[in-house]
Automatic annotation (TrEMBL):
InterPro entries to which the protein is assigned, alphabetical: Cbr1-like_FAD-bd_dom (IPR008333), FAD-bd_FR_type (IPR017927), FNR_nucleotide-bd (IPR039261), MRET (IPR050415), Riboflavin_synthase-like_b-brl (IPR017938)
Protein name per UniProt: Oxidoreductase
Molecular-function annotations in GO: oxidoreductase activity
Pfam name, any one: FAD_binding_6
Protein source organism: Natronococcus pandeyae
Length: 222
């Protein structure tokens, strides 16, 4: 059996959280202390190949989508039907083992201030986790989320029911996204999570609105 780097952890559960999106609840390794906004490197050998070697190990980064870490923590996985790892992860039933390294990342939330979380696509995982953590800590939170097929809608609607502002934006509506960012820019520390074009747009919008994008905490997913 191939020796996989990282700490082996059990997959506690897998649940669907949106179109082509699942959340994995993973066993928390010893001395694993992560904050919302951080990410892990997950390694696994997809399938049941007992003759696998190191070339068969697939590794991907995933940002935490749980507001805190206890006995378990959560990551959110967008499923690429042609991907090497995500379809296999989505088909797990719990009890399997994957390997994790981390946590990594300097973009964190320490439950100490009001926040504005701007998410594009897979950025919803860390955005909702930060918003939940802020709300639980008694701070104000805003979520601006652009996606035509949103995930974690139940959690976002729960936040709305509890007084958190949540703005859903259509995928191709840049004007609506810019208006939402500008409208809430001064309401807390700005976090932004998403792919390169999305976070670049967010940064430019902040500057155009009179803010300073250098003060925003932005995670570029590539």
């Amino acid at each position: 059996m191939v020796d996989i780097e990282g700490t082996p952890v059990a997959v506690e559960s897998v649940r669907e959280v949106g179109p082509d999106t699942v959340a994995l609840e993973l066993e928390t390794p010893d001395e694993f202390d992560a904050l919302p906004g951080q990410f892990v490197l997950l390694r696994a050998v997809p399938g049941d190949d007992t003759d696998a070697d190191e070339d068969d190990v697939v590794a991907r980064h995933y940002t935490l989508s749980s507001p805190s870490v206890g006995d378990t923590f959560e990551i959110t996985v967008g499923i690429d039907p042609e991907g090497d790892l995500s379809p296999w992860l989505a088909d797990l039933e719990g009890g399997e083992t994957v390997h994790v390294d981390g946590p990594f990342g300097e973009i964190t939330y320490e439950r100490d201030r009001d926040i504005v979380a701007v998410a594009g696509g897979p950025g919803v995982g860390p955005a909702v986790s930060i918003a939940e953590a802020a709300h639980e800590a008694g701070h104000e939170a805003v979520v601006v989320y652009q996606d035509d097929e949103p995930a974690h809608v139940d959690r976002l609607e729960n936040l709305e029911d509890e007084g958190v502002t949540v703005v859903f934006v259509d995928e191709d509506d840049g004007e609506e996204l810019a208006d939402a960012i500008e409208a809430h820019l001064e309401e807390g520390q700005v976090y932004a999570f998403g792919f390169h074009d999305f976070v670049t747009f967010v940064a430019e919008t902040i500057d155009d609105a009179g803010g300073d994008s250098d003060e925003a905490l932005i995670e570029n997913f590539g």
